[in-house]
Structure formats: structure tokens, C-alpha cells
Amino acid sequence: MNKLAISVLVSMLCASASIGSAQAAVKKAGTRYVAPAAKTQMVKRTVSVRGRNKVVYQRMTKVADFNRPTMGDLAGLNLVRDPLDLKSNVALVLDQANSEVLFEKNAGVALPIASITKMMTGLVVVEANQDLDEMLTVTEEDVDREKFSSSRLKVGDHLTRRNMLHIALMSSENRAASALGRNYPGGLPAFVQAMNDKAQSLGMNDTHYVDSSGLSKMNVASARDLAKLVQAAYEHPILREFSTDPKAVVENSGRPVTFGTTNRLVAPNSGWEIGLQKTGFINEAGRCMIMQAMVEGRAVIMVLLDAKGTAARVADATRMKKWLAALKPTFGENVSGASTSAQSYSGM
């Protein structure tokens, strides 16, 4: 099943899927595909004209993606059932101390990972020992021309590298992540190469990056690889702190601005004890989340990819936490869609 999924996915990543091919793939899975409806909206943009910033409005046609299948769906991963009836197409839970697999579902299939990419961005920035107090400027190069995603940062805004890193991890600010990559020695191409080099050094062999934000569907990784990323990132206190802040006030161009988290599970009253986290979403990836958390006094790493619906990944994480808590007397048994034998996750 996984080999078939991977082969289908690779072909999908190499060329954009037409609606006709998507209809055929979903029809095979027994699901009705409804062609997305187009809508027009005005997009506010800031451009530079002869050295001066000018606000312009551009009419953009956007497509409603409510019924569009994700890459995981097109690869048939939604046909795989699991004992917890998760809404995520991919799931992996590890014991952080010994890398024992406690739960897995399609964990070896590489899929788009959206803004989970930013955790590798943060890891490269921190390990490069760049000056965190250096002031960086948002430029036109940081504006999303692929997904036209919104941002609270404007072209010309000035933030320290520390604050850029903070809001990239906490608030998933795409322009901040872009600025971090662009201000690396050698620019964004060198930064992306450093991301891929770091992935290889960690044994993340199913991983590939093309940008520092995760907006591209070409940023892919398997759940097994992402568990290795969580393990490596957890070693850095600043990544733990910035990714788990519920909210923070950062200085933007000399004025204080409040930013919040994209993950409500880090709230003080959530009932969770989370040491590191990152969420992500693009249409091709679905709702994604990586976490390090304490459950019944045991440190675990959770990876959930390609969940359906805005609350699905949180619901799946909560379901997983309850299952782990109920499993406490025999904590260490593995559950998957095909096997329940305990196993060790090598290579971490």
C-alpha cells in the first residue's frame, strides 16, 4: 500500500494535478469530487516605485478548496483505517526517551508538510549562530506570490532576527520565515540547501525543502522524518520557548505588536504540557502538527499530517492523549493500522 502511495504521490508532486485526474483518483476511492468554485476579491499590496512605497489593489480570482482532495487523499491514504478512527491520514507517536513506536499510520509516506517547514528554518538559523539582534527588513521578495497568504508584516517593516524567528514559530508568519532565509549567507538558495543538508545529517531521507516558509507543496517529509526533526529541535531551548509561547509582544519598526500562537493546545488551561510544537496548513497538505509533550509523566513525540477540518488535528491529538493515558498500565504497546506489535524506531 505504501509503495503504491509513494509512487502516486511522487508523480503528483512532479506535475500539477488537473481536475480531471483528481476526479478519477477520488472516484476510485469512492468519494464524490465537487469542482471548486471561483470567487473574486481585491488584494491589497505594497509595491516600491522609484524608492517609495505605494499601495495598490489587485483583483484576484481565488478558488474555494472545500472539497479538493489533499495529496494524501490522491495517494489513497484516506482508505487506511486505524483503531482510534483518526481524521489524520498520517500519524506517529514515539516514546522520546527510547524512540519506541507507540502508534503509527502511514508513517513512512512523504507528504507536503506546509508550515511545519518553519521548524527546520528555526533549527538552521539557531545552529548557524547568526546574530539574533541584527535588524532584518521585510521586502517585496518576502511577499507570498504562490498562495497569496495574508501577513501582519508589511513591506519595509524592521524586526530583529530574534523577533522574526519568534513569530515564525509561534504565529507561523510566512514573511518572517522568508526574511530569515533570505538573510542567510548566500541568500535563500543557500539557506534551502542548508535545510536539506541538515535533514540529510539527521537521517531524514524522505524529506525535501524548496523554501523556508512551507507555502510550496514541494516541501515534503514523512512522519518518521519529522519525529527526528522534533528530537533535534527540542535540544534548543529557544526553539522550545518560541514555539510554545501562547502570545508575545514583539517590537516591529519601533512599535510593540502582539502576536499569538496558531496552536490552542499550548494555552495554560489546555490541560497539555507541551515542550515544542508547530502547526501547518496548505490545501495540498491538510492540517498538520508536530509536538513534544508529556503524557502521564512520559515524554512523547506526536506527528499528525493531513487532517481534515480546522479542529481535526486538535481532536486527533486529544484522542491520542486519552488513548495513551488509558494505556498507562501497559504503556509501550504499539498500535497501527496493520500491526500491534511493539517496535523500535531506529535512526534517531
Give a verbal description of the structure.
- The chain has 348 residues and is an alpha+beta fold.
- The protein folds into three domains: 1-33 and 69-79, no CATH class; 40-67; 82-344, Beta-lactamase (3-Layer(aba) Sandwich), CATH 3.40.710.
- 30% of the residues lie in helices and 27% in strands.
- It has ten helices and 15 strands.
- It has helices at 2-14, 19-28, 71-74, 117-127, 161-170, 174-182, 187-201, 223-233, 237-244, 312-326; strands at residues 38-49, 52-63, 88-95, 100-105, 111-112, 135-137, 158-160, 220-221, 247-252, 255-260, 274-282, 286-295, 298-307, 335-336, 343-344.
- Strands 3, 4, 11, 12, 13, 14 and 15 form a seven-stranded mixed beta sheet that branches. Strands 1-2 form a two-stranded antiparallel sheet.
- α5 packs across α6 (174-182).
- The longest helix is centred in the middle third of the chain and has 15 residues, at 187-201.
- The radius of gyration is 20 Å and the shape is globular.
- The model is unreliable at 1-39, 61-66 and 337-348 (pLDDT under 50).
Helix-strand layout with pairing:
Blueprint: H1 2-14, H2 19-28, E1 38-49, E2 52-63, H3 71-74, E3 88-95, E4 100-105, E5 111-112, H4 117-127, E6 135-137, E7 158-160, H5 161-170, H6 174-182, H7 187-201, E8 220-221, H8 223-233, H9 237-244, E9 247-252, E10 255-260, E11 274-282, E12 286-295, E13 298-307, H10 312-326, E14 335-336, E15 343-344
Parallel strand pairs: 4-14
Antiparallel strand pairs: 1-2, 3-4, 3-13, 4-15, 5-8, 6-7, 9-10, 11-12, 12-13
